[in-house]
Amino acid sequence: MISRHCIYAIYSLLFFFVSCGPTPDRRITDADRLIISNPDSALSLLNQIEPASLNDANRNLLTLFSAKAADKAYKTCTDEKALKSMADFYENNTDSLRTQSLFYYGLCLSYNGNPDKALIPLTEAYNSAKENDDHFYAGMSAREISSIYGNMLITDKCLEWALKEKENYDAAGKPIHFIWAQLDILNALIWGGRISEAQPLYDKLSTSSEADNPVFKTKLLSANADMAVIKGDRKAAISLFRELIDSGETLTSRQWSKLSEACLDRKELQQAYSSLDSARIYATSNLDSLYVLNIEAKLAAQNGDFTEAYHKAMDWGERMAEDADSKIITPGTVPLTDFLEEKNTKAKAKQKELRATLIASGAIILLLVAVVIALAIIYRFKTRLLKAENERFASQIISLNDDLQTISNLAQEKADDSEQTPEEQDDERRKAEALKNDLRNLFDKNLKMFNELCNLCYTTPPVEGRIQKFHSSILKILSQFQSDHTFREIEKSIDHHYDGWMRRFRETFPGLSENQYQLAAYLFIGFSLSTIALLMGKPSVNAVYIAKHNLKADIGNVAGPEAEKMRARISIKP
User: Fold this and answer.
1) What DSSP character marks residue 53?
2) Is the pTM of this model over 0.85?
3) Could you report the per-residue pLDDT of 472-513, keeping only the tens digit for each?
4) Which of 160, 322, 442, 544 is paired with 28 by a 20 to 30 Å CA distance?
5) Which of 386, 492, 514, 393 is closest to 441 using CA atoms?
6) 159 CB-contact burial (10 Å; exposed 0-12 / middle 13-18 / buried 19+)
7) What one-character-per-residue DSSP string does 222-242 give?
8) Full DSSP string of 161-193
């Protein structure tokens, strides 16, 4: 059973790590814990928070979690301005916050009818996720990109990104998402007219573990209807589309147009007109409108109204011609290409401007070179100092870790005392083991974080800002080791397991400084001098030798059997 001291230590450490950085608003973190299990409740909690009452960090965190909760609740955040501001706020981040901010901003743009613009942040989100080995959000981004290209009828790109979606969900260990990705691949194959490849995949998905999922089942039915259209089986297509309608599914404009076209081919003109009216209502893009216009021309011709059919066909042709160089024919590629070209043009312009400035100012060039050389020397020297300091911290932390592994030697030393009975020896071993467990619980999380930071510091490129960041993080962890709170927990644990030994030590040797009481506690536990230097913030082991010598001088003159036993326990003789 975990003692109350261990539990208190764990909660204290958690509080410490939260307090090291900008503190997230508790209302936001409470809602975040509900997003996966109950997104509607999470969204309701987040909507109650007034953004104006928050600082920049919490306001952008609120925007991100609100978009995330809305997506999980099958809704979409439509506030482009807030999401754009959020994406800009996290622009310089290198973690998942940047990936997610770009993803949900792109999702919003796509939902608001700007799919071509959405490709830019979604592509950046995919690249960011891949850089961070975040396969889940890479799969999510690829899914949305594939969907956009599918709606634009760029079927090769649609299939390309659907395959990336499946690959990343597989790498992320998401078997259900993996199956749904195959559904996206199926649709891409169908829209590309590759029925011979689509049919076996459809058969496979029809017997998958998701086949009984109502939403999955409906999407398979929709895919089957699309296959029937491409195969030219109008009767089967009409039957499948009507089955979709009877199931309560809302058809897209494109599906209504396909149903209208199938009814037209089978001379079911009333149904063709009715379906076309629905297609017109649900049209959300120029492609949808052009499809409707094309069928209108065919229906007019079928009714014998050739004049109207001629005008609609001409209108359709002119609009196709006008949009030949626009997003209707090659949607998405223009904004994305423009974005990349703009970045390249800006980079070239900056290079040209810099070149002109350097040519015009030879003296400045020489001065800049001298400054750069000087900065490089200073930077290299500073980097070496930081690395040496971090290596010293690392060796101290390894010493602390080793001490925690072998702290039960206290019990062995006491067991070797021939004056103790076997029962006393066993009791001493149990006390030492319990103290070791308390210390392990108190330090364990910090030990792991420290080692990870040190390893990362030595394996990352030597960028000064990054080194400073790691160094700052290490110092924060060290400050926890050296804090009064940590020592109080250690002192409580000693008193708990050794009949108030620290309390009795304070009573036997009153008037010492707190640093001397700390030193006595660490000597009692059996920590090495390297570990004591770390815990007390001493610059070297030699400083601990001096502190131990001073402690010996201050407690050496106190007489009595109790004082003698305590000095012996911490290896100090008068």
Assistant:
1) G
2) no
3) 666 666 666 677 777 888 888 888 888 888 899 899 889 889
4) 442
5) 492
6) buried
7) HHHHHHHHHHT-HHHHHHHHH
8) HHHHHHHHHHHTT-HHHHHHHHHHHHHHHHHTT
